[in-house]
Amino acid sequence: MEYRQLGGSGLKVPVLTFGTATFGGAGKFFSNWGNTQVEEATRLVDIALEAGLNFFDTADGYSNGMAEEILGQAIKGRRDQVLLSTKATFRSEPGPNGLGSSRHHLLRACEASLRRLGTDYIDVYHMHGFDALTPVEETLRTLDDLVHSGKVRYIACSNFSGWHLMKSLAVSEKYGLERYVAHQVYYSLAGREYEWELMPLAINQRVSALVWSPLAQGRLTGKVRRNQPVPQDSRVRVTSETSQSVSDETLFGIVDVMDEIAAQTGKTLSQIGLNWLLQRPTVSSLVIGARNETQLRDNLDALTWSLTADQMAALDSASAVTPIYPYWHQRNFSERNPFPTR
Questions:
Q1: Going by C-beta distance under 8 Å and a sequence separation of 6 or more, which residues neighbour residue 38?
Q2: Is 112 among the domain residues?
Q3: Residue 231: its pLDDT value, please?
Q4: φ/ψ of residue 13, rounded to 5
Q5: What is the structure's pLDDT at 76?
Q6: CATH number at residue 105
Q7: Can you list the residues of the chain whose pLDDT is less than 70?
Q8: What is the residue range of 32's domain?
Q9: Would 129 be classed as within a structural domain?
Q10: Using an 8 Å Cβ cutoff, are 18 and 45 in contact?
Q11: What is the pLDDT, as a whole number, of residue 67?
Q12: Residue 153, Cβ neighbours under 10 Å: how many?
């Protein structure tokens, strides 16, 4: 297992993170992702730790907190062997203050997550989304207090716009507060918008990318192809969040190239998609969401080899789309405003 620095912090994390959105299966949305319970979760944690994958990601909103509870049971007795990441901001309680990044909500959410996880500290605590109604100063002072109290080790964000993240970093610098060291983002061969502004910002400010849905919610695993119906049991049928990034025709073209590389290498499409991401700037870890042992072992095998420069170029070409303004205009000034992945 390779370990990489988490942004500007001193913490090193494995290049694969085990995501637990498949734990619990509560409600229609999460039941389509998976329904992993304690016994199977414990087995998956065993396999991950054997491979050196010691970073586990969850959120208070996954299956109404059940994912945190199941993860807590699965790591019981070996907390010192793992790194835990969880999130707050989305609704976790009823009422007008049951969501957001206010001091009121974050303190309650953090205590609840600690209780469900069965631990007294969280290694990486994410703001799951940007709260535009709470002053950035209030959010960061609260997170700073949580770090200094020992309940949180590092802070991170998720799904922020460029200005959300840059304003937050500027406030941290101005007041000497803890700063976000990582940004959990959607990034895949089927969704490269992260490269337009967030990647240059991350390079400049030393903020690592922790990538969620690196296989575009299953659409880069070979389940979706030209003239092939999506399997009835696939979450692709009910989860279309990431399908907004590229057209079906572009996706089919990406999968065609992945098929060619699979024939050359003997690797699965999942392994190819993960391997491509691990060669991109700012990426520290990919959050994989294996529902069973077979999927987990397949994902772990993405680390045993590397795509060639020609294969990377072919995938880059197949997945390239014209960015929106002002990014297409900025690319015309590459002499002083270089595109990070070129």
A1: 70, 73, 74
A2: yes
A3: 67
A4: -130, 155
A5: 97
A6: 3.20.20.100
A7: 229, 231-240, 342
A8: 3-333
A9: yes
A10: yes
A11: 97
A12: 18
- The C-alpha atoms of residue 43 and residue 196 are separated, in whole angstroms, by 39
Both structure tokens of 211: 């990538």
Express each pLDDT in 186-211 by its tens digit: 999 999 999 999 999 999 999 999 99
- ∠ CA(291), CA(72), CA(94), 5° rounding? 90
Contact assessment for residue 95 and residue 67, using Cβ atoms and an 8 Å cutoff: no
Do 341 and 327 contact (CB within 8 A), yes or no? no
- Asked, for residue 338, whether it belongs to a domain, the answer is no
Beta carbons within 10 angstroms of residue 242's beta carbon: 20
| Residue 121: active-site member | no
Is there a domain that residue 317 lies in?
yes
Query: Which bin fits 34, alpha (ψ -120 to 50), beta or left (φ > 0)?
Result: left
Q: What is the pTM of this model?
A: 0.95
Query: In the chain, what's the furthest Cα-to-Cα distance?
Result: 56
Please state the domain count of the chain: 1
How far is 22 from 327, CA to CA, in rounded Å?
35
Q: Three-state secondary structure along the chain?
A: CCEEECCCCCCEEECEEEECCCECCCHHHHHCCCCECHHHHHHHHHHHHHCCCCEEECCCCHHHHHHHHHHHHHCCCCHHHCEEEEEECCCCCCCCCCCCCCHHHHHHHHHHHHHHHCCCCEEEEEECCCCCCCCHHHHHHHHHHHHHCCCEEEEEEECCCHHHHHHHHHHHHHHCCCCEEEEEEECECCECHHHCCHHHHHHHHCCEEEEECCCCCCCCCCCCECCECCCCCCHHHCCCHHHHCCCHHHHHHHHHHHHHHHHHHCCCHHHHHHHHHHCCCCEEEEEECCCCHHHHHHHHHHHCCCCCHHHHHHHHHHHCCCCCCCHHHHHHHCCCCCCCCC
Rounded distance between C-alpha atoms, residue 28 and residue 25, angstroms: 8
Contacts of 111 (CB under 8 A, 6+ apart): none
Q: For 306-330, write each residue's pLDDT tens digit.
A: 999 999 999 999 999 999 999 999 9
Catalytic residue among 62, 125, 186, 187: 62
